[in-house]
Amino acid sequence: MIPQPLADTHDVVFDVEHITLRFGGVVSLNDVSMQMRRGEILAVIGPNGAGKTSLFNVLTGVYTPQEGRVLLRGRPGDSPVSVIGKKTHVINRLGVARTFQNIRLFPALTAIENVKVAVETRQKAGPLAAMLGMPWQRKEERDSTAAAYALMRDVGLGERGNELASSLAYGEQRRLEIARALGTNPGVLLLDEPAAGTNPQEKRELAELISRINRERNISVLLIEHDMKLVMSVADRIIVLNFGGKIAEGTPEEIQRNPAVVAAYLGTSAEDAARQATDQPELHLIDTQLEPPPTDEERSGD
Amino acid sequence: MTTLETPPTTTPTPPPPPPAMRRAGNETSRVLLKRLAGCLIGGFVLGLMVNSKEGSPDDFGFVFHQTALKPRMLIFLAIGVVIFAGITFWGYLRQHARRPGVRPLGMGILVIVVSQVVLNWYDPQTVKFNGLRKLVDKSSGLSSTTTWFFDWLSWTLVALSVVVTGAAIVTRRRVFGWVTTVLGIAGAVLAWTAHSDVLDLGGGIDHSLGAYGDVIGFLILAGAGATVALSQAEVADSRGFMTRVMEYRPGLPFAVLGAVLAAFSYARNCWFAPVNRNLDFAKTHDAYQGTDINSLASNYLGWLGWVCFVVVAVLTLAATYLRQRLLGWLAAGAALVATVLTFFSLKSMTDVAAKSVPQFGKSWNNLGAGGFTACISYGLFAAAAAYVIARPKTRAAGKSATLPVSRALEKARNSANMKALIVIALAVALFYPPMLSQYWQNVLVTQMAVYLLLAVGLNVVVGWAGLLDLGYIAFYAVGAYTTAYLTGSLPRKPPSWLHMTPLLTIPFAIVACLIAGVLLGAPTLRLRGDYLAIVTLGFGEIIQIVAQNNPGNFTNGPRGVEPPVPHPKLEIGGWKITWGLDNLPYWYLLLVMLAIVVVLFYRLENSRLGRAWAAIREDEVAAQASGVNTVRAKLLAFAIGASTSALAGTFFASQTGFFDPTQFDIFTSILIVAYVVFGGMGSLPGAMAGAAVLTWLPEFLKSQVPTDDRQMWVGALVLAMMIFRPAGLLPAKRRKAELSHLDEASPGEVSAIPRGGAM
After folding, report:
1. Residue B619: closest CA among chain A residues belongs to which residue?
2. What is the pLDDT, as a whole number, of residue B727?
3. How confident is the model over B644-703, as pLDDT tens digits?
4. Test the B interface: residue of A166, A176, A177 with most B CBs within 10 Å
5. CATH number of the domain at A12-95+186-291, please?
6. CATH architecture observed for domain B94-236
7. Where in chain A is the domain with CATH 3.40.50.300?
8. Which residues are CB-contacts of B230 (< 8 A; sequence separation ≥ 6)?
9. Which of its termini does chain A have fewer beta carbons within 10 Å around, N or C?
């Protein structure tokens, strides 16, 4: 499972080398290395507690790993910067935006204000200009409103701008979080279980949205997701974590056939899983997920 | 299995109902007992609260004995029982309680009871309704209706109104409603005439509120009767009614109110009150005949005043009725001109009086309420005109309130409401204080004014950024001491080029407070919630103790500042304003400061920094992940909040002249937090309203309840507020949303007591 050496290293967004993250005696990430290429959708999967969200928190500066090195080229053409020890908002400014596993919007702000908060972090006007109502501050205000509305329309919330974020439906809140993340004009988008708690219809729309963001805005996407169908349908590559270590990396097809992955999900040994996989070719990872298998209706919908 | 019912085979034999029912019965009786006990205790506490001054203030046991073991306590226990019955039989009462007219009826009774039990009725003797009744009994020369009113008529009218309205609500007979209306109006007229009768006989200046409250209460009762008579709806819809009234002709209610007020002021109010004489508008004109008053004021008193009133009233009424924007502008302009004319006439009146008869005092003395009431009514006219200007006929999309209103209409409505409210608030803030007695002007300037500013400043930190700052008073102290230093009132004198007048010290005080704000903010940035509160509490203490300890002989320690900080002066070109010992000018100085601060902060709230603060308050981690520099935003919150208290400090130092470190204690700090929370965290008008109400109330209660009981009533009000309106008096839009959202999620979390869990 050694990653393929990349032809052009300038195309690497995140270059993670041997990071180890410990909380006291608990090892959350153990010598994890990975590379994320520009423009790809990279999925990180793994059972609960595998260290996926910890990895996200290291990449966004929430946690500082004890060992290892993380280099970031946020937007195309940037020179590599180490993210270790940098504050979250600084890393965000370098082009890394994220969403959260449990939705973390600003519930008492309206939907449009949620996005504006993110858009405005790139603006210049200070409190004095705001208090005195300077023309450039007013222009920035108009610009941010326009940009925020454009983003809202993009994620399909164009009509809901003046609703309170807390009054939106669950799936809409997920999409609003994505719009807010896009508001900071990122080069890479980290999505932490964006499909959790959404229904099949919303999942399909979400998959379409993720691919579209990736394609049209040329934003690299790092995706944590438990829904295998979604992962398999959108991801270019997949990294599998288990117990804080990376156990596999490859294309969706490779991962589905990888005995170590199947073992991690089924809880059996790798050899057993490999035998099972060869014995019963129809036993794919898709069917081993913890959720109930898709109904006929869903299958036909695909 | 096709049915959703539980298969009978899996259920054991159904549990015998009697035990379950017995348990339910036990539960019910326990709840009832708890509720009864709660209501009785509540009545008992109320009885203790509404007591007369008995016993010595130090001997609480004796006081308790005196108040608790009197037969009158039975009345309050009975109130408890009534409330118990009300809660218990709410289900039965409900079908009637939701009918139209019930709420105004309750409100009217409440107002009447409060004004006849709690409020003062006759200031020269400082007596309440009962005391006045005894006085009336003893004195001769009052008309018999007055004697009757104080003897039995007032309570009888209330009782009759309740019975008749109750009958009207239950039987749905219109005639009963009209009877109540007549009774209410009769009660109002009787209360007014009886009180005037007493004043005519007794003499003296009366500032008591009881009679006015009573009149308003009876008028509300009349309104309740009219509501019952006119509305046959099954369920009352007060909001819908208000919307219909406001939507019929936006601004018309204000115009009518202004017309009534102005007519009252020109016809009845006292315009000029030299030594113990009260002259109304016409008599003032007679009094100024033959003096060297200028022609403007002379004409104003003769005919111009009335012309102003008629022109403005007709223009405004026409504008609001026809909804023509041009007429609206004309009406607003006319109102402005009328205000200016009134103002200058008043000025020349007092100038002449002060010049010709020196014992009348200085300019602006001896004026009655009339002129200022007229100015306020012109403000009301202007507010009505503002409605027309903001929403003329062409843009009135929703003809009836039943149609769904579009967002644009709602926006126009909100902006019109806001404009009108600003105009009215400004008119009241400008022209109401001159009508107040010296005592209240003093309270306004020394108690309220500073706290208005402080509450607005603290609102930035606590309300917007969500950082609980319990040491806010420290910045106030820094501001006050900076001013004292720069005006040479501390032992250490500033270099001569830095020695300046108080108003010039404002920028320096602001800078000093900005630095102090950053100094406090920087080490506490990692702290949140309770921890931050404790550190700021410590900061407040440190500043006070430092001021006490007088390091380097800078603060002069507990002796306070000496010589006194000079009063402010302002010289622009040849134009010179000096503030002295009079209170009123300080109020206008503060008003200017407050207006500037409020305008700046209003813009700030809707800027990117304001939104960033809200984001940090809501979810700091998400704010960071969205690229918000939380460190910078928090520091700015501390610094901007602190700079407001610099203004307050300068104002305070130069107004009082003297202060010492004891004035910057923790208690005051916590009071300011209470003002902000009470008014509505994160809401500018809320913070001001909270500060105004909570500084006014203790002073008001001074003359209404025993002095030692004042804080108890204030506490009761704050408690009631937190239970019934947790978002505050005038909640912020954002905060309100936050709370209502939480309310849906978990009903018990927001209010101090869980909904429905009380008793």
Report:
1. A106
2. 86
3. 999 999 999 999 889 989 989 988 999 999 999 999 888 999 999 999 999 999 988 887
4. A166
5. 3.40.50.300
6. Up-down Bundle (1.20)
7. 12-95+186-291
8. B177
9. C
